[in-house]
Amino acid sequence: MGICASSKRVEQEQECDENVVYVMDEQCGGDGGGGAPGEEDAPAACRKVASLFSQKGKKGPNQDAVILCQGFGMEDGVFCGVFDGHGRCGQYVSKLVRDYLPFMILSHRNALLLGAGDDDDGDPAFSDASPSSSTDGSGGGSSPSPAQLLDEWREACANAFEAMDRELKLQPNMDCNFSGTTAVCAIKQGRDLILANLGDSRAVLATMSDAGYLRAVQLTADHKPGVAQEAERIKRCGGRVFALKDEPSVQRVWLPGEDCPGLAMARSLGDHRLKPHGVVSEPEVAHRRVGRGDLFIVLATDGVWDVLSNEEVVSIVCATPRKQHASKAVAEAAAQRWRTRYPLSRVDDCSAVCLFLRDQDWGGTVAAARAKAAAAAAAGAPHGPC
């Protein structure tokens, strides 16, 4: 399938296939969750959390996978991730990483907080409980600074990605020598956002400026072999980076003495034959404090970003009347662009997760921003993507 959602309340669109998932918060009005989902402005209405969608392309099995976990690390914590597999076993790699990586990250985070990381012989046991969810003050009282929070999550993510990469190598029925996956993850802990990324999937934030204009902010970097520091590391380790004659714009990674595998990314989970030659499994981890103008985050695979700009994706989500259709609208727009821009090429898998950071006045905020942008356009002033 390609999608996994951990939530007490998950709605699936009945008119579509199983690849559409719309997650709503469990905190709904009524004793049995009987509040009307469409009543966004009502205090007792269900809070919209995320929209997930994965669409198979024309290249074979769907190698993308997406996930959302609620209650991650704290009561209102959220984890969401997008994974793009490649190679002969790519569809299995991406789904295995989807199923295990979130809990490995949380496990390593818990071990760091408990100070027990050095006491165990192996990886710390999986756990859904987190000391960070404690509110009784026993954990030291004050909240960590953004720098401390980033350091803690960066270490937890680095350890978990390394452990996940080792786990892939141990799979008896999965050859990951030339198969692997990207991973882009967003972890929301209250107002804090932690982004962990490796490969060429991407996270983009839609935020509204003080002037009332919406803009797209790229939160992660694409780890392409053509990026100078990535290419330098690969070449230093004996790997080669060059593009094929029939696609001069796509830099790829090759083994020292063989014209294979031609990997189009500089970091990944799996691809173990390339690990000695500079293709690393270390993620880049960043932190952002959610501001009052931040509306939503879009995580998507390169099937989306190869044909749609950050601004176009934000605009598509803004223009979608119902939140539950947001990720599907992004994926379908990308597939359509593939067909029109590259009519002789096979459409890539297209998957997206839209994580909503605001709820009650989201529609009104977008409408107001559109009106202001239209007025600015009429006056000849620059404006944001919506």
Quick overview:
The protein is α+β, with helices and mostly antiparallel strands. The chain contains 7 helices and 18 strands. Strands 1, 5, 6, 7, 8, 9, 15 and 16 form an 8-stranded mixed beta sheet that branches.
Q: Can you tell me about this structure?
A:
This protein is α+β, with helices and mostly antiparallel strands and 386 residues long. It has a single domain (3-32, 44-135, 143-222, 285-379), classed as Phosphatase 2c, domain 1 (4-Layer Sandwich). 28% of the residues lie in helices and 25% in strands. Strands 1, 5, 6, 7, 8, 9, 15 and 16 form an eight-stranded mixed beta sheet that branches. Strands 2-3-4-18-17-10-11 form a seven-stranded antiparallel beta sheet. The chain has a three-stranded antiparallel beta sheet with strand order 12-13-14, with helices on one face. A hairpin with an 8-residue loop joins strand 2 (10-11) and strand 3. Helix 1 crosses helix 2 and helix 5 (310-319) packs across helix 6. Residues 7-18, 29-45 and 124-140 have low confidence and may be disordered. It catalyses: O-phospho-L-threonyl-[protein] + H2O = L-threonyl-[protein] + phosphate; O-phospho-L-seryl-[protein] + H2O = L-seryl-[protein] + phosphate. Residues 122-146 are annotated as: Disordered. Residues 124-136 have a biased composition (Low complexity).
